[in-house]
Write a structure and sequence with these properties.
2 copies of one chain form a homodimer. The first copy, chain A, has 234 residues and is α+β, with helices and mostly antiparallel strands. Chain A contains 7 helices and 10 strands. In chain A, the strands form 3 sheets. Chain A has a 6-stranded antiparallel sheet with strand order 4-5-6-9-8-7. A two-stranded antiparallel ribbon of chain A has the order 1-2. A two-stranded parallel sheet of chain A has the order 3-10.
């Protein structure tokens, strides 16, 4: 982790621990510089990150202010690394439907920039929140980057495993959202009716160097599909 | 507009004019500094903005690369200032259902931080794309900031008017998304059936100084609700 990322995390912790609310003013730049014993440019970079993440806003000539944390139970799409953190305090579970190694459909292979006949791990599982269906997930992981998966791993957070065990550095993500109708089979798994609406979220995850490594299709239960997107002033 | 914002726009234009694709490399920092005749720190700030906007990604020790522009017809939620720009090339229209001055519901007044009995402009309109219903909009504009609206203005882009005529400086936006069922009246306006699903987008827009000025509720036609969220590596 880079120095400014560490400082950003510390300021985030400071906001939480002091239970600061929207509009509350943070210490001025000079005081933050002194407090965290880093250079001014490190603090500025850390503040920019917090602004992008939707945790603060900066008003020229006036100060640095806290942005209110969003409603509970809403998934922050700007996070780009799964929803575990947003759903802290909720009981999450997974029912693995299938995990296999395969040559993926052409569209997926193209998106993941695979060679001919290059294999992926294909994972299908039902994500469960507080005992109720949250979403149906289909994920394709390029084996070049995700060298190993098993049933025990995909029972929990795959992203924690990728980050902590495989030391994968996440980069940017493209997320597409739209409404689709559920098929009969999908509806059964979700406890819904055929043709019921679901929120489809299609994501292409890239490594820090720009290479795509995971393509995921999530179909959210209509009662559970709650998303938050904080935009910054840019 | 600040210098680094101007440079960011120029680099964006450079990418468009040279028709660069995902993974294409941009000139190195020193060359950009020379090309745009600004300081290194201005270029760095401009590149950070472009990264946040999902237009480039930076790989330490390797270079600056173009991120592919997203699928046509998808609305980029990270823009935070209406969807006109994303839907360029599509014919957009509005059918104004009502425009009035009123004391808003309590929840709205609280969100907009209004005093007791402070009024808003309330706007209800159907947004139309290529002749078909795109979404049903209900917007509350605090009169303190949006001092004047009329039927002619709300026929077009209210945000263009706020920016260009009222010189309002936009800040950050909180966007919440979920699926709702349409009422009979709403469904009729959209050419759908009662109980059909719609994608509800609830947005609180803030000025550059953090004051909320507009609360909007959009219900998107299920066939037209297509959103894009680019996340960056932060």
């Amino acid at each position: 982790m880079l120095k400014y990322e560490k400082v950003a995390n510390q300021i985030e912790l400071f906001i939480k621990e002091n239970d600061l609310n929207q509009g509350d003013k943070l210490p001025i730049l000079d005081d933050l510089t002194e407090e965290f014993k880093v250079s001014k440019s490190t603090i500025i970079k850390a503040l920019d990150i917090l602004e992008i993440k939707g945790l603060i806003y900066q008003v020229r000539g006036s100060g640095i202010f806290v942005r209110k944390s969003h409603r509970s139970g809403y998934i922050n799409l700007s996070g780009g690394d799964g929803f575990r953190k947003d759903l802290e305090g909720f009981e999450l579970d997974s029912k693995v439907i299938s995990l296999e190694q395969m040559v993926p459909p052409k569209k997926v292979a193209l998106g993941l920039k695979l060679e001919d006949n290059e294999e992926v791990y294909y994972l299908k599982r039902l994500r469960i929140i507080e005992g109720a269906p949250l979403c149906l997930e289909e994920s394709y992981f390029s084996k070049k980057h995700v060298i190993y998966l098993n049933n025990e791993i995909v029972q929990g957070s795959v992203f924690d495993y990728l980050r902590d065990d495989l030391k994968i550095e996440f980069g940017f993500t493209d997320i597409y959202l739209r409404i689709v109708d559920l098929s009969k089979k999908e509806a059964e798994l979700m406890g819904l009716k055929e043709g019921d609406a679901a929120l489809l979220s299609e994501s292409m995850y890239h490594l820090h160097n720009g290479e795509p490594f995971n393509y995921s299709i999530l179909k959210y239960h209509k009662d559970q599909a709650q998303f938050f997107v904080p935009t910054s002033r840019y």
